[in-house]
Amino acid sequence: MGGELNRDKAENGVSAKNSLKYLLDRCKECGYIDDVEYDYAVGRTGYGDKEQFKAKALISFFSGEKWLIYTTSTFRSDRFKGNEWDAYNIKSIDTDITNVYMVYADG
Q1: Which of 10, 33, 38, 49 is deepest in the core (most CB within 10 A)?
Q2: Separation of alpha carbons 97 and 107, rounded Å
Q3: What is the pLDDT of residues 9-30, one digit of tens each?
Q4: What is the largest CA-CA distance in the chain?
Q5: pLDDT tens across 59-76, in order?
Q6: Which residues contact 40 (CB under 8 A, 6 or more apart)?
Q7: Is the whole-model pTM more than 0.70?
Q8: Among 42, 38, 41, which Cα is nearest to 21's?
C-alpha cells in the first residue's frame, strides 16, 4: 500500500512539473516572458558546489526582472523550508530576482 501511495505522489509531481513547463513555454512563445531556465541552480562564489541552491524554474522578463518558481505536490513543512532557504540564498546572489512562487497542485 505504501508503494502505491509513493508512486501516486511521484506521478503527481511529474505531472505538476510537466504542466508548469507547458505553461511557461507557452508564455515564452506568446512573448509574455523573455526566457525560462528549468532546473536552475547556482552556488556562492568561493565554494566548490556551483549547484548549491536550486529552483524548478527561473523566469526572465524583458524588463530584466526575474522570478523563481518551485513546485510541490505535497505541502510538507520541511520541503517548504528547504525551498525557502534555497530561494533566500539565490535572491541574495542574484538581486534581479524580485519574486519567488511556490506552486502547489490542487489535485
Answers
A1: 33
A2: 29
A3: 677 777 778 888 999 999 999 9
A4: 50
A5: 999 999 999 999 877 777
A6: 54, 55, 56, 57, 58, 68, 90
A7: yes
A8: 38
